[in-house]
Design goal:
The chain is α/β, with parallel strands linked by helices. It contains 13 helices and eight strands.
Length: 358
């Protein structure tokens, strides 16, 4: 009996010690997080820091504005000569995402980066982000908003005489690239020499039974939340500061610079909350996975091993579904490939273009 009593006493003390250790560890982790949080909040990327990181847009860009059939205007920047690359950014971003490619790849390519409607300097037409009534309306798969954005990319290809072009899409831009390649009429499809799909997905984001129904149920609440955020931020998605920094930081891998995160934040905090609200359902519900076999255009799929937003499994499913695709994964890289690993991405794009020209 005494032995049992002693054992119980020791066990109780052990539980207290273990509990105290857990509490102490929690306090230490919380203190470290708070210190980092405050440090990040104080960290400001000065113009010279951005320039040192190569995050200053070239001053010799050519600017175009392409009118859409529904009265919108798409802003496009251009630099360089040679084979054409059309760059499509992700949601909440802008053509400035491609600053490194506009600077470096323009030495051998005609590099064009467009602001997608509702982003940057591009305006939304009367169709909004709904199904375009004038283009690809008979197609199935994907999402109406992606078909609208794909129609804008098609308008840019036509207006700027891109007879042969490689379309490069990041994140949402990759979804639009897939939608464009799938929906394009034969004449347009013949102009698209290749697809580069960077940190993106063919959907669905969660391949679970009932996912589409769940998205439909949650989307109205999420939309109201985003619009409420906009009312607190002068119509923008977020204000610059702690929230903007951490919303940007999650898109990067383990070790971005403060300048890189702040640069992404500068785009995210300029995003119109109404446009973001209109895109929520399309982003969550996008699904072209069952149609990938119809996209025969040669494709390069690039993903970071530390991408939290479109993890490598999405890239593997893309390569498995596309008839002519190769995959490259970048170690310790997050979702913002073009900012985190610009030289490697530039090299991959150049090699891909070279294979297509051979």
């Amino acid at each position: 009996m005494a032995g049992r009593a002693g054992s119980g006493s020791t066990g109780g003390a052990g539980r207290w010690i273990r509990g105290g250790a857990l509490v102490g560890a929690g306090v230490a982790i919380g203190g470290t997080w708070l210190a980092q949080h405050r440090m990040a909040a104080r960290a400001v990327a000065a113009p010279e820091d951005l320039e040192a990181e190569g995050l200053a847009m070239p001053d010799d860009l050519v600017h175009h504005f392409v009118d859409t059939d529904d009265g919108g205007r798409i802003h496009v920047v251009e630099r360089g000569d040679g084979p054409a690359l059309l760059l499509l950014h992700g949601v909440t971003l802008s053509c400035a995402t491609w600053v490194n490619q506009l600077r470096e790849l323009a030495a051998g390519f005609r590099v064009l980066a467009m602001d997608q409607r509702g982003h940057g300097r591009s305006s939304v037409g009367s169709d909004g982000f709904g199904e375009p009534g004038h283009w690809a309306s008979a197609r199935v798969g994907g999402a109406p908003a992606m078909r609208s954005l794909a129609a804008d990319a098609a308008a840019v290809i036509g207006a700027l005489d891109l007879d042969t072009v490689i379309v490069v899409g990041h994140s949402m831009g990759g979804m639009v690239t897939l939608q464009l390649a799938h929906d394009a009429p034969d004449e347009l499809r013949s102009k698209i020499a290749g697809l580069a799909l960077v940190a993106t997905t063919a959907g669905p984001f969660a391949p679970l039974p009932g996912w589409t129904r769940a998205v439909g149920m949650i989307e109205p609440l999420a939309r109201r939340s985003v619009l409420a955020m906009g009312r607190r931020s002068d119509g923008h998605l977020l204000r610059q500061g702690d929230a903007g920094y951490w919303a940007s930081r999650i898109a990067f891998g383990p070790s971005p610079s403060v300048a890189q995160v702040r640069y992404a934040e500068s785009m995210i905090t300029e995003m119109d909350a109404g446009s973001m609200a209109d895109l929520l359902g399309a982003l969550a519900g996008f699904d072209l996975s069952g149609n990938l076999a119809e996209i025969e255009t040669p494709s390069l799929v690039v993903v970071g091993t530390h991408d939290r937003l479109t993890p490598p499994g999405h890239a593997r499913r893309l390569v498995a579904g596309l008839p002519d695709a190769e995959m490259v994964d970048l170690a310790r890289c997050g979702h913002m490939v073009m900012l985190e690993r610009p030289r490697e991405l530039d090299r991959l794009l150049g090699e891909f273009a070279g294979k297509l020209a051979a």
